């Protein structure tokens, strides 16, 4: 049997209610009473008020904080946090958290929820797929335009650069990509194209806009430059991709008085003639320069294209030369076997025609011979790259501008991946617009980190990936009841990065 017993505490005056239960004790062989306090009486109503539940003991939590601190302090230093705070007071922290995730983990957002639980973030909440979908749709055109207006004014750049890139499939060529005149042009120009404007002095992206139909080339860039009304008071250089450089496109730029930097294929007639002029003397110590952390042989010439002055910057990379020619020989061998067997590959038609002689044998079949002269001409320009400019006299400045284009293309590559397309509904225009904006914010931060690295000799051997990985290993341990958190041991490399970037681990993220 059970009953409720009331006992008054003489010291406090409170009356407590106890659950009184009779329990049979096997050892004593009799009933004993057990009491459990279930609450106290309300003096006004006479109701039993339950006792307060004891709090469960809090356990220690561990968060990755190193890159979070570097990321936040970089955003504050360049004014990015303030511009986003002004443009989107509600979501600016989530926008920066999304950008931080991109730099930390890549373009695919499938792991963002788990990542946001393990990293100290500005938003201080979990970025689930549901939250991300809502965020992308709330970064509308009005929010973006408010940001661009404040961000451009804050940077106060007099000279800018305009470049065109394509998401998903980039026209950027890797080290082992071979030279052709046709194969490297975009197969599908309907893919998402972007115009991106970068400040010439600080090298920070200022603005982006989707280009209609993925339009590419010199004429598209020139037309876009005229359409940006806010940029009329600024000098704007056009960064032209090598796949679209020919005599007609250069004549168009000169006729429209566009300032430009254009990378060309070595086979382009003006470029090949320039290479011939310097090939025998470029590899000397006086022409050796360390540009953006890479040792190159560099020579610059002043020439004229149909009466127009043109600065020609010629770069030779001995390691690239060897790599290119080895790859080229492998492809030539594949093409030879394909021609002999009759199993032709459509993408290799350019190589069949240029590097082989073919004739029918009297007894039947095909005789395939190598065009050794054409192969040697390829080797003559292996490792060479040429930049043409209407105004840039410095080869380092010209190369830095074009390398910025490569970084932009790399950042926007694979933005429409299969994992995110369905979960984030990127097939909807509003969601895709917000997704591009997050990528652009990540591009700004990565450009600033790259700029810091390139200007500090102590960081010359570091890549963005190195910095992210090393700083992410720094963990902060929160122990209940202890005001000051603990950190994992800081390595010499991490200390070096923190010193160069001015990272203070004692600062609180989001403060």
Q: Explain this structure to me?
A:
The chain is an alpha+beta fold and 511 residues long. Among the domains are: 2-49; 61-138 and 415-511, no CATH class; 319-381, no CATH class. Helix content is 40%, strand content 23%. The protein has helices spanning 66-78, 80-87, 92-105, 112-118, 129-138, 141-155, 218-227, 247-255, 269-278, 318-341, 349-355, 372-381, 395-412, 418-423, 429-454, 464-472, 492-501, and strands spanning 2-8, 15-25, 30-41, 48-49, 61-64, 159-166, 193-199, 205-211, 235-240, 259-264, 288-291, 294-305, 308-316, 356-360, 366-370, 384-389, 475-478, 486-487. The strands form four sheets. A nine-stranded mixed β-sheet has the order 8-7-6-9-10-16-13-12-11, with helices on both faces. Helix 2 crosses helix 3 (92-105), helix 3 (92-105) packs across helix 15 and helix 5 (129-138) crosses helix 15 (429-454). 32% of the residues are buried.
Count of strand segments: 18
> Could you list the spans in which at least 5 consecutive residues all have pLDDT below 50?
168-190
Amount of beta strand: 15-25%
Helix vs. strand class: alpha+beta
Major sheet details: 9 strands, mixed
């Amino acid at each position: 049997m059970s009953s409720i017993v009331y006992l008054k505490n003489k010291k406090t005056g409170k009356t407590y209610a106890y659950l009184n239960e009779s329990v049979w004790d096997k050892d004593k062989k009799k009933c004993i009473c057990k009491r459990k306090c279930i609450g106290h009486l309300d003096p006004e109503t006479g109701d039993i008020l339950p006792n307060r539940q004891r709090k469960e003991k809090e356990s220690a939590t561990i968060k990755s904080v190193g890159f979070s601190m570097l990321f936040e302090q970089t955003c504050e230093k360049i004014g990015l946090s303030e511009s986003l705070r002004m443009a989107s007071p509600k979501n600016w922290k989530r926008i920066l958290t999304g950008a931080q995730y991109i730099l930390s983990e890549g373009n695919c957002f499938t792991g963002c929820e788990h990542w946001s639980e393990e990293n100290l973030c500005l938003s201080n909440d979990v970025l689930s797929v549901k939250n991300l979908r809502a965020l992308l749709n709330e970064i509308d055109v009005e929010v973006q335009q408010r940001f661009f207006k404040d961000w451009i004014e804050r940077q106060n750049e007099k000279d800018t650069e305009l470049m065109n890139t394509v998401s998903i499939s980039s026209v950027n060529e890797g080290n082992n990509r071979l030279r052709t005149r046709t194969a490297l042009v975009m197969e599908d120009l309907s893919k998402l194209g972007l115009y991106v404007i970068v400040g010439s002095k600080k090298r920070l992206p200022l603005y982006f806009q989707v280009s209609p139909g993925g339009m590419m080339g010199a004429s598209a860039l020139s037309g876009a430059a005229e359409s940006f009304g806010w940029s009329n008071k600024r000098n704007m250089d056009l960064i032209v991709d090598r796949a679209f450089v020919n005599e007609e496109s250069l004549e168009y730029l000169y006729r429209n008085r566009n300032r430009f930097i254009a990378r060309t294929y070595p086979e382009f007639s003006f470029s090949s003639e320039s290479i011939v002029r310097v090939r025998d003397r470029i590899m000397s110590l006086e022409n050796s320069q360390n540009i953006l952390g890479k040792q190159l042989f560099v020579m610059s010439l002043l020439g004229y294209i149909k009466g127009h002055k043109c600065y020609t910057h010629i770069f030779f990379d001995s390691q690239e030369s060897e790599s290119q020619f080895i790859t080229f020989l492998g492809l030539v061998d594949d093409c030879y076997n394909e021609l002999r067997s009759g199993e032709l590959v459509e993408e290799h038609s350019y190589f069949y025609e240029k590097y082989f002689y073919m004739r029918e044998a009297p007894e039947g079949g095909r005789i395939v011979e190598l065009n050794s002269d054409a192969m040697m001409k390829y080797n003559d320009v292996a490792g060479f790259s040429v930049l043409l400019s209407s105004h840039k006299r410095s080869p380092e400045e010209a190369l830095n501008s074009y390398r910025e284009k490569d970084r932009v293309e790399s950042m926007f590559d694979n933005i429409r991946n299969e994992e995110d397309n369905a979960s984030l509904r990127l097939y909807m225009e509003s969601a895709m617009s917000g997704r591009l904006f997050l990528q652009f914010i990540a591009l700004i931060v990565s450009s600033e980190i790259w700029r810091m690295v390139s200007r500090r000799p102590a960081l010359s051997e570091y890549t963005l990936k190195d910095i992210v990985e090393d700083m992410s290993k720094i963990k902060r341990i929160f122990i209940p009841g202890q005001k000051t958190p603990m950190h994992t041991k800081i390595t010499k490399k991490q200390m070096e990065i923190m010193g160069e970037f001015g990272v203070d681990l004692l600062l609180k993220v989001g403060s």
